[in-house]
Amino acid sequence: MSDTETIVIVGGGLAGAKAAEGAREAGWQGRIRLIGAEPYLPYERPPLTKGLLQGADGPRAAIVAGDGWATTHGVELLLSAPAESIDRGARTVRVAGEDLPYTRLVLATGSVAPRPDLPGADLDGVFVVRTLDDALALRDRLLPGVRVAVVGASWIGTEAAASARQRGAEVTLLGRGSVPLERVLGHEVGAFYAAVHEAHGVSLRLGPGIAAIEGEQNATGVRLDDGSLVEAEVVVLGTGVRPELGLAVAAGLDVGGSGPARGVLADERLATSDPDVFVAGDIANAMHPILGDRIRVEHWGNALNQGLTAGANAAGANRVFDLLPYFFSDQYDVGMEYSGWPGAFDEVVIRGSLDDGEFVAFQLRDAVVVGGANVNVWDVNEHVQDLVRAARPVRREALVDPGVDPADWVARALDAD
Ligand SMILES: Cc1cc2nc3c(=O)[nH]c(=O)nc-3n(C[C@H](O)[C@H](O)[C@H](O)COP(=O)(O)OP(=O)(O)OC[C@H]3O[C@@H](n4cnc5c(N)ncnc54)[C@H](O)[C@@H]3O)c2cc1C
Predict the structure, then answer these.
(1) C-alpha 242 – ligand 1 centre gap (Å)
(2) Helix (H, G, I), strand (E, B) or coil at 35
(3) Which of 110, 180, 222, 207 is nearest to 331 (CA)?
(4) pLDDT class for 342, splitting at 50, 70, 90?
(5) pLDDT band at 4 (very low <50, low <70, confident <90, very high)
């Protein structure tokens, strides 16, 4: 392989950094250029709503590719350098007016957090949390006694609420549904999270929609569509993200999937409709061989592992990506891992105690485990995954029996036939 052969990676997040590592681990001897729009070394985002927002960690805690990383992995970093376009015919990526040639290309442009179309969404004191800059700016405003309204009771919202509370802010959590995290975890586990937040002094106002953010120049509160006002100097919008598909669309790559699944279409090896272009992380809508469908996943574990696979395959490996979606969350002293991709579930079976805050919540559809969360219980998530992969009806008594070792769940809980 000549050193003029080049893998270009667009996107300096977790998936992009791991793609470089994956390519080197697979034996790529050529050049690797990593193009990042942000000014920072590649960093991961989970700390942005956790230790970084709490002030416990500085920005370095989020960096996945520290000072020596680029040298160790032979990566040429181009930072503060958004890729402008891709010419697949000429095999070049345009950056700062220059056309950089590639042999293979990995796209990992992630997501952006657009502000919702809501009156007042651009006022001073209104924040999204997507980038390091977002998180640092918000952290500076989270002072003891400051009133904070968090809009959105899913992961970003609940984690931001917990961290703001831990900094001594007065926090109100606003959202749809009757409990936080209901869509992902179901009512019972959502109610557990509601109780955890209330026990830490967060006020929950779930149900009403948001009519506007009020204020002249600075936010002063959030007007709900029932007419009430939640007064706040700081408003955090945890209202969802959108995959950054612009480059891929303009390059003529196949993009598809409806609604939230819309992403760059890829096969189970993360190759796009152009076999020399691979994709990883939030923007990939990739065929999942176990789930039998294309899925687009906005999870840390997905970015990490798809990055490694896409980079390796760009380097000439031929690896199938078949890991189940995996997610984690930390709020106060509650740690959680989740695996699965249920779409819908019709039953939640709890092993352990919601009251004690240590449990595994299995999500079942037609008696088959399709997902599961372990909360303050560790070293069991791989066994939840074993049950999901088995895709067979379970005996609930064995799942909840504390005498059954999780390593034996597959042997003891699956129906014999
Ligand atoms: C605050 C926060 C907390 C989270 N916490 C968790 C958690 O606890 N657990 C969990 O499982 N998941 C969590 N996630 C989700 C997880 O971080 C994402 O799924 C993951 O960051 C996706 O990685 P990525 O590399 O695909 O994209 P990103 O992390 O979005 O990185 C993409 C990068 O590409 C750059 N880029 C975009 N366009 C261009 C271009 N044209 N040229 C060059 N560069 C470009 C962007 O600037 C960005 O730096 C969290 C996300 C956020 C925002």
Answers:
(1) 11
(2) strand
(3) 180
(4) confident
(5) confident
